[in-house]
Amino acid sequence: MKQTLNHYSQSFKQQVLDDYFQSSMSQAACCRKWNIPITTLSSWLSICKNQKKVVSLCSNSIHMDPKDQAIADLRLENERLRREVEYNKLRVAGYERLLEIVKQEDGIDLLKKDGAKQ
């Protein structure tokens, strides 16, 4: 099956990025909503991050006071870090569940320290 390359207008990219940053939805949910591939959104986000122009590319008010821009940058960074923390909490919970399953099914306690008194 041959895929075609989609070229999105800058205004469409702007709308999608605004929606993503202003909502609490995941990348996958945003992609479903806008009917775009997740790799496309990921590449747009990495471009924003690499160019450090997240506010100018991803907000409605391009001409901001430097103080307001700094606040907006901090809010975006805060949101990104919150999402990262939530993702890491889910990873830890997954690993803990995996350890429980291994202990139940195989009787192996992977958390037990080597050489501990029994």
Structure notes:
This protein has one domain (10-106). It contains five helices and no strands. It has 118 residues and is mostly helical. It has helices at residues 10-22, 27-34, 38-51, 54-58, 66-106. The chain is elongated, with a radius of gyration of 21 Å.
Low-confidence stretches: 53-57
- Counting DSSP E segments of at least 2 residues, the number of strands comes to 0
The geometry reads as elongated
- Main sheet? none
Q: What share of the residues lie within helices? A: 55-70%
- Proportion of beta-strand residues: under 5%
Question: What distance lies between the first and last C-alpha atoms, to the nearest angstrom?
Answer: 59 Å
H/I helix tally: 5
Topology:
Elements: H1 10-22, H2 27-34, H3 38-51, H4 54-58, H5 66-106
Summarize the structure in short.
This protein is mainly alpha-helical.
Key descriptive features of the protein:
single chain; 118 residues; mainly alpha; 5 helices; elongated
